[in-house]
Amino acid sequence: KKPFKPGKSNLIKSSEKRKLKEKLLSAFPSLTAESLDALLPNKEDIHETKVTGSRTVIYSKNEEPLFFDLEGRGEPKNFFPTVYALWKLPPFLPTFDIHAPVFKYISQGADLMLPGVVPPQGGFEPFSDRSKRVIQIVGTKTPLGIGITQCTDASIAANGMKGKGLMMTHFYTDYLWRMGPKTHPKIDIADDIDSDGEIDEEAAAQAEAAQNQTAPTEPTEPAAAATGEPTDNPAESSAPADQAVQEPSEQPSESSSTQQVASETSAEQTDASAPSTGDAPEDDAIPVEIIDALVQTTFLQALKRRLKDADLPMLVSAFYSQIFLPCRPVGTNINLKRSSWKKFNTFLQQKAEEHLIELDEPTPGVVRILSVNRGHDDFVAFRPLPVAATVEGAQKAAADAEDEEAEDKSGPQIREAWQFPKHLHALIPDDIPTSTLFDASECTSLLWDYVTANNLTVQDDPKKVALDNVLASALFPKELHAAGSAPVVVEKKQLAQKFRDKLLKVNEVTIDGIKQVKKGELGKVAVIVEPRQGRKWMTRIQGLEKFGVDPKEVAKVGPKKFAASATVAKLPGKAKVDLLEVLIQGQFGDEVVQMLEAEFNIPAKYIELSGAGARVKG
Fold first, then answer.
1. Phi, psi angles (nearest 5°) of residue 379
2. What distance in Å separates the CA atoms of residue 280 and residue 536, rounded to the nearest whole number?
3. According to the 3-state scheme, what is the secondary structure of 151-194?
4. Could you report the per-residue pLDDT of 113-163, keeping only the tens digit for each?
């Protein structure tokens, strides 16, 4: 359901294709071998794609994802079909029928709540917890998604239609669907969604009642947003409430009060993903002023930290789910119905009237954000929260921790980052340590925040910046020394380039759970293919140690992968250093590169293939 970046795609061999089919038949006992052969013919190519930063593996045919292994371990319980496969195959999984308007919530990232399920006549057939179920709109036979049950037939009989029914792993319109040809099911998705994707409010209200008012306590990550106005009280995950948000001690007046109230809200509300302790106040107990201030803070955080001019125009619904909600402070939830605006579009209309943003409505009910006035007093005065103090940052930290824990200990985790040199520390807000490692986009944001906060943009030419003493001395020292003064005005493009050149590049390498910061370029693993006597070849692998990979482990994998002998020897010319190289008999340059990526998690950019016998595949 979350945005993801597909990694390298590999064509699987015939033997691997047979094993894949065996695993799928084991995972889905009701799926026949004939149906599977029709979907995955032996003569057609099947590609395996790993999701970057995850163990998930996607299996595709003709660029159409058909199955995915959620954990990448090849275990039957972790295999799921995509909607593309479900539409092509005869029914082979049990289903939950849902009310038509409920799919609106699922398409925005919510899990399926039991009140949204239509109970079958005669009751549910026996089913176990954490079993796979397909969803379809009642009265149709077209699958729209798949998930894992969070209940049993016995728990429903005992407790009624309450709580979560299905944790969605994939659905029509999500990011996995977008990876394919984006074909649509041959049914009307919901009675409350018209051909333009606009939600009918009356039907949506019925859907909300059906989906259960307790949905906000069931966390999910917002996925692909439909056009039109977003839901006012979506199911959203949040990070633990005990992670306090440290606010700067001094703020401009309006932003200060807004952020102070947001901090109070964070302290008062409990984690939506944790079991209720009874200590958290109900929405009615939170003053409207606090909720309004939280909305204001989140909106300005989203404009200043996440929304780029290059992203505009953007549908309001996409902005709401993908940018606005993830920017709220850690430990908070936003219920717009309890705010003074009641609806998000009403709030945005006010901001448009205040000339902070510009909106348009190309078709009735479909609203877009056209531009942001980054010179507006509220925008300039607002001091954004550190990313780690937002839901987005907390979720990223949790995901990174989970990925690190799940990753094989034999491979490194490498993060490219930048540090600010001492003469640029003035660009870092006081509440962020100067030793912090930033990614490229964060560095650029801090530069433009500084320019905006100090009113350095030339009014008559917004593409230019008037330099102050800090930027002049830090970025143009040679010009300052030679001419006695640095340029007074520079193009933003030139300023950005000078700024990037002055940053200190580092690599944060995590090996066996231990993080090390290494300055400069990290270096590469050398894969050298060279001829030996006669027509024989030797493939040498050097430099594995810097990535935490034991050469002896690589030598063990070689014979299994390539049916060739592999040995380990001391690296020539390194008598004083205990470094080793792997020697594999044969010409296996490309194959070794793929092995180092797949088996030892070394990114391709850190592997250099060379030698007279190297066969570099395009």
1. -65, -45
2. 72
3. CCHHHHHHHCCCCEEEEEEEECCCHHHHHCCCCCCCCCCCCCEC
4. 998 898 888 888 899 999 999 999 888 888 999 999 999 999 988 888 888
Mean pLDDT score of the chain = 78
* β-pair type (413-419, 366-372): unpaired
Secondary structure (3-state) at 608: strand
d(CA 275, CA 264): 21
CA angle 230, 236, 239 (to 5 degrees): 145
Q: Which residue matches tokens 């940053």?
A: 503
In whole angstroms, give the CA distance from residue 462 to residue 492.
Answer: 9
| Residue type, position 544, single letter | L
Residues 286-305: tens digit of each pLDDT: 788 888 989 999 999 999 98
User: Tokens representing 577?
Assistant: 């250093």
**Which tokens is 455 given?**
């009113």
Among positive and negative, which fits the CA dihedral 507, 508, 510, 516? positive
User: How many CB atoms are located within 10 Å of the residue 421 CB?
Assistant: 12
The pTM (predicted TM-score) of the whole model is: 0.38
How many angstroms separate the CA atoms of 331 and 243, rounded? 7
Beta bridge partners of 98: 117, 137
DSSP notation for 406-447: HS-TTS-EEEEEEE--GGGGGGS-TTS-TT--B-HHHHHHHH
Return d(Cα 333, Cα 238) in angstroms, integer: 7
Q: Which residues contact 497 (CB under 8 A, 6 or more apart)?
A: none
Q: Rounded CA gap, 33 and 392, in Å?
A: 43
The model's pLDDT over 453-488, given as tens digits with 9 standing for 90+, comes to 889 998 888 889 988 888 888 888 766 555 555 567
Q: Which residues contact 266 (CB under 8 A, 6 or more apart)?
A: 241, 244, 245, 329, 330, 331, 332
